[in-house]
């Protein structure tokens, strides 16, 4: 699943292992269970920590670092979504705004179509970003309820729902 979302295979495997593990695991245990090189595990754990979905824990009597994943699926989704927005959507918005300004300054009639397309694309990204920000401010229970209301909302605005 991770590779389909553009995540390195080993990073995805380590996260999956930590997510389903009842107890925190140290790097050697991860290497043994997945058959992955220690250096690859170290780099992948750093990436997962940078995403904020894996943290280091210390177990009494053991000097090694152990790692555990966020277990709450809603919190996990929120963290991943926020990080993807920060890494992918926000820079896209910044670049689209700059492109729209640049083409907006043009006096060339041929640029009018490009300007319209860029403004439409920018408007879409801003709408989605704004919706994300509003949903992200909701408490988890309220966000889940809003998602479950999808069909009711679609029916109330006259949209066809199968």
Task: Describe the 3D structure.
By secondary structure, this protein is mainly alpha-helical. It has 2 domains: 3-69, Arc Repressor Mutant, subunit A, CATH 1.10.10; 73-156. Helix content is 67%, strand content 6%. The chain has helices at residues 9-20, 27-34, 38-51, 73-104, 111-137, 140-148, 150-156, and strands spanning 25-26, 54-57, 66-69. A 3-stranded antiparallel beta sheet has the order 1-3-2. The radius of gyration is 22 Å and the shape is extended.
Helix content: 55-70%
Dominant shape: extended
What would the average pLDDT be, to the nearest integer?
92
Largest sheet: 3 strands, antiparallel
The count of β-strands is: 3
Please report the number of helical segments.
7
Number of domains: 2
Strand arrangement within the widest β-sheet reads: 1-3-2
SS strand fraction: 5-15%
Radius of gyration: 22 Å
Structural class of the helix and strand makeup? mainly alpha
Poorly predicted sequence stretches spanning 5 or more consecutive residues: none
User: Termini, distance in Å?
Assistant: 27 Å
> What is the H/E order?
HEHHEEHHHH
Write the layout of secondary structure elements.
Blueprint: H1 9-20, E1 25-26, H2 27-34, H3 38-51, E2 54-57, E3 66-69, H4 73-104, H5 111-137, H6 140-148, H7 150-156
Antiparallel strand pairs: 1-3, 2-3
Helix pairs in contact: 1-3, 4-5
Q: What are the key terms here?
A:
162 residues; mainly alpha; Arc Repressor Mutant, subunit A; 2 domains; 7 helices
């Amino acid at each position: 699943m991770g590779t389909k979302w553009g995540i390195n295979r080993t990073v995805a495997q380590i996260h999956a292992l930590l997510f389903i593990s009842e107890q925190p695991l140290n790097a050697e245990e991860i290497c043994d269970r997945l058959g992955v090189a220690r250096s690859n595990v170290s780099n992948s754990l750093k990436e997962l920590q940078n995403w904020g979905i894996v943290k280091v824990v210390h177990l009494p009597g053991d000097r090694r670092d152990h790692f555990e994943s966020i277990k709450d699926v809603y919190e996990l989704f929120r963290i991943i979504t926020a990080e993807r927005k920060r890494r992918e959507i926000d820079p896209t918005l910044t670049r689209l705004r700059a492109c729209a300004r640049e083409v907006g300054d043009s006096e060339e009639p041929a640029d009018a179509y490009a300007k319209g397309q860029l403004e439409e694309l920018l408007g879409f990204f801003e709408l989605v970003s704004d919706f994300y920000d509003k949903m992200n401010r909701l408490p988890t229970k309220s966000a889940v309820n809003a998602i479950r209301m999808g069909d009711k909302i679609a029916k109330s605005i006259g949209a066809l729902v199968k």
